[in-house]
Amino acid sequence: MNQSASRAIATYRMVAAQVHPLVAVVKLYDEAIRQLHLAVRAIEARKHEESYICISKSSTILRGLCHNLRFDKGEDISQQLMKAYTYNIVAIHTAYGKPDAPVRYMKIIKHLGELRDSWAIVAGMSPKLEEVPAPRHPQAAIRPARVG
């Protein structure tokens, strides 16, 4: 294992021990959403490899959330979340390379934002990220809003 990977793992362990699990879930949603915004920008800049890396990161986060569901703590909600995560993972990869991919990603971002807000309320955090304006047309530049 190289030095930077070791450092990243050590940092992850330290942060994981310091952050409440619900807060961590909200932060994971925030990062998945951020990666999709970056993918949209990369698509518009015709940086296809960069956009693929971003959607891969976003779907990996969702896959991680899916794999950490606690069916023993609530089977019904876990089933619903698993369906939502799976649907979004498939939608993310299906949209890649399509002419309307930015529009599709914005719909996914909206859905993930709603899930994020639900978890944020449970965690006692701010329920909404600033709204990101809709594109004027499918190829309009979309930048993530900054909170604060």
Automatic annotation (TrEMBL):
It is found in: Cytoplasm, Cytosol. SUPFAM superfamilies: Flagellar export chaperone FliS. CDD domains: FliS. Keywords: Bacterial flagellum biogenesis, Cell projection, Chaperone, Cilium, Cytoplasm, Flagellum. InterPro entries: FliS, FliS_sf. It comes from the Bacteria. Transmembrane segments: none annotated. The keyword tRNA processing does not apply. GO terms for cellular component: cytosol. GO terms for biological process: bacterial-type flagellum assembly; bacterial-type flagellum-dependent cell motility. Belongs to the FliS family. This is Flagellar protein FliS. The lineage of its organism: Bacteria, Pseudomonadati, Pseudomonadota, Alphaproteobacteria, Hyphomicrobiales.
